[in-house]
């Protein structure tokens, strides 16, 4: 199950990065970007669920600093990804060019926050 969780979380990184960076490069928000955000969110939530199942089935070995950081920032990241997706849909539905052009600033912040639990999880797994 660990391999599946790692693969799904990595797909989250790929989809979310494609959505965020292509939106920034294209300088406007498009519907397919929102689709990439959705796929990233689905993969992240699925990977997080799988990781929590693994954690529940593992013997209690205490919680490391990396795990604490990953838990807090991971919950924050999923919440922000959901807000980001909803806000993207709202911006797309309102279809205001100025909002579409500025949306990437919020995207980069959410993406950067999302990277924290991704890398702390990887570092924590390698150090345990």
What is the number of strand segments? 0
Reported for the largest beta sheet, the result is: none
Query: What is the straight-line distance between the termini?
Result: 18 Å
The radius of gyration computed from the alpha-carbon positions, rounded to a whole number of angstroms, is 16 Å
Low-confidence stretches: none
Average pLDDT works out at 87
Q: How big a fraction of the residues is strand?
A: under 5%
Succession of helices and strands? HHHH
Question: Number of DSSP helices?
Answer: 4
How much helical structure, as a percent, in the residues? over 70%
Mass-distribution shape: elongated
* Main structural class: mainly alpha
Description:
The protein has helices spanning 2-26, 31-57, 65-94, 97-127. By secondary structure, the protein is mainly α. Helix 1 packs antiparallel against helix 4 (97-127), helix 2 runs antiparallel to helix 3 and helix 3 (65-94) packs antiparallel against helix 4 (97-127). It is elongated.
